[in-house]
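Dear support,

Our group has been running a series of protein-ligand predictions, and this particular one with shikimate-3-phosphate is the one our PI (initials K.S.) wants archived with full inputs and outputs. We had some confusion internally about which version of the output was final, so please treat the block below as the authoritative record. The input we submitted was:
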Amino acid sequence: MSTSSAPHALARRFLAKGPLTGRIRVPGDKSISHRSIMLGALAVGETRVTGLLEGEDVLSTAAAMRAMGATIERQGNGDWLVSGVGVGGLLQPAGALDMGNSGTSTRLLMGLVASHPITTCFVGDASLSKRPMGRVITPLSQVGAAFTTYPGGRLPLLETGTDTPVPISYRLPVASAQVKSAVLLAGLNTPGVTTVIEPVPTRDHSERMLRGFGAALTVDIDEDGARIIRLVGQPELKAQDIVVPGDPSSAAFFVVAALLVPGSDLVVENVGLNPTRAALFDVLRLMGGQIEEIDRREVGGEPVADLHVRASTLHGIEVDPAVVPSMVDEFPVLFVAAALAEGRTVTSGLEELRVKESDRISAMRAALHLAGARVEETADGLIIEGTGGKLLNGTGNAAVATHLDHRIAMSMAVAGLASQTGVTVDDTRPIATSFPVFEHLLSEVGAV
Ligand code: S3P
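Confirmed final output from the archive:
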């Protein structure tokens, strides 16, 4: 039995009480929520954000922006108002910025402060303190920022921004929207044109939102298919009204659960379907999942639709590694779908999963194995022999180790719904980083 090393872990067993039925809305998109707070905090005037994700990660971003001078308040109706300091107006924070579990907050804010003459200390939890920051330190050092880190380029780290930032041209060595965004955000307070060359497209929320706030940003495709993103520095950003669509990465858990739990028939409303995010739903359809899009429309400059999901017989597939960046956070829950499918599912090209909130390849291999699935780990993925629709055994008296990783916890909760004896998750607390109402919604749809 594996147990959590965390002193106040909150273990829970997940077992389906019945099929998932009805209509739900998942909270706002995490990536868009972070960016709306950051750009609102740099704009002139008052930005209103409707549908902000009130998860711990986004609240870490809000606390940091407040510590650097922005005014950020929640209204009685649930909207958030952000009064910005203007590009270049960030102030020296009085203390360390606590990033909690959030890699997105850390890497994007490291970008923002790189071109401000202030010194910031970033600290985080045990999971975040293991994650590599060298990938943003390399380009931000070229901009002119200086760093002192814990050995291995990890948190805690001290960053001293520069008052003479250099506009760089940076080719991303790894497909990462966080690195791309860090460079672009550093470019905001840098005179001249900052360029990011992105050989493999990643989520483009930063580009969309920078434009929405009035920055001059262009995207061209070169002869090799790479995206060339150019941002003209030192714009005046104008406050916006932002409506945040539902997070496809959160919807993913309910979509997979509804596919797997017999008799389920569920509508998940208002799901963001930005093509750089939504590949999971295409892959599940290729596996035989019945997922119907209803009323495709635009919300806040992003495509959204309601997803109607019915319990389905899935079959294993070989997942094209080209789709990895557009479903990078969804592999843990895809592994669960594969564990119940008929035949073999092969995934590859998932090296980046090893440096998320946990090593998601090895964490999911161990967790699914404990729940009774047949799983083999490779250097860059998992190979899973599905049960052909038969429920997993469950974990018996043991608990799966989630390693402070919200997506492992929620994926294994879904596995529990598709098991005979239930799956015990060693610690559900990390779920609050991205999806605080996850367990509440599970009970609302009748699953638990
Ligand atoms: C994110 C980018 C992705 C993703 C993370 C959010 C973002 O990380 O895994 O959950 O908002 O930019 P990488 O850029 O490291 O792939």
